[in-house]
Amino acid sequence: MVTDKDATGRDVTDQDPYLIISSDCHAGLPTEEYRPYLDSRFHRDFDEFLAGRDRRREEMTRLGIRNEAFADKWFQDNEEGLRGGWDTAQRLKELDGDGVAAEVVFPDADAVDSRTAAPFGVGLGLSGDQDPELGMAGAQAHNRWLADFVSGHPERHCGVALLPVTAEPGRVVAEVYRAKESGLGALMIPSMWVDKEPYHDRRYDPVWTAAAECGMPVLTHSGRRPGTSTATIWASM
Predict the structure, then answer these.
(1) What SS3 string covers the chain?
(2) Which residue intervals define the domain Amidohydrolase-related in the entry (predicted)?
């Protein structure tokens, strides 16, 4: 048996178990079930969003981009595990089964058919050019639900609040503080600001200050950087 010291000076051995913390898990309600968490003045917009989503699915299926048979089989074969995307008891069962002690929880639990996407596409599709009103409404709906979702076992779930950071700074700052007070632990901003001010612009200083005061890391999830593509840069070398 090999004995060593950890960063705190405690004796550790090669027999000690690993502590596994996942930094990239996902959770979210089936999209239509976000309604109770959405401000009522946006319910009509939400109905239109859901109808548009269904039309887009039908068109993608018609064009052969979406495979409905595959999606249906995926959900049938994995129904129990996928339920952990919004059912806390099932989620704990899945975490325990995988030996995961704790997790960082991003939005959108379904990577196959987007059936658990946050309202108005503000989950992993959160973008700098999102409609500011609908973007904040959808983000707040997800954040309210997520706070409830992680509250039962906060030591195991670090909920990542959605933050449409390119919206009006005062509203963005208010959402940072509200998310912190509700028990969420980090903030996700769009990977790209698109046609809005870049993130080094001083207009965002109050947001970064609020995040620092709350001790909430600012994260992105996926997406290419703005500007010249990597392929173009390599081609010019």
Answers:
(1) CCEEECCCCCEEECCCCCCCEEEEEEECCCHHHHHHHCCHHHHHHHHHHHHHHHHHHHHHHHCCCCCHHHHHHHHHHCHHHHHHHCCHHHHHHHHHHHCCCEEEEEECCCCCCCCCCCHHHCCCCCCCCCCHHHHHHHHHHHHHHHHHHHHCCCCCEEEEEECCCCCCHHHHHHHHHHHHHCCCCEEECCCCCCCCCCCCCHHHHHHHHHHHHHCCCEECCCCCCCCCCHHHHHHCC
(2) 92-232
CATH of the domain at 41: 3.20.20.140
Instruction: Tell me which residue range forms the domain holding 49.
Output: 3-223
Q: What is the pLDDT of residues 109-133, one digit of tens each?
A: 877 777 888 999 898 888 888 899 9
Residue owning tokens 């706070």: 147
* Residue 235, in any domain of the structure: no
Contact 141, 34 (CB under 8 A): yes
Q: Is 123 within a domain?
A: yes
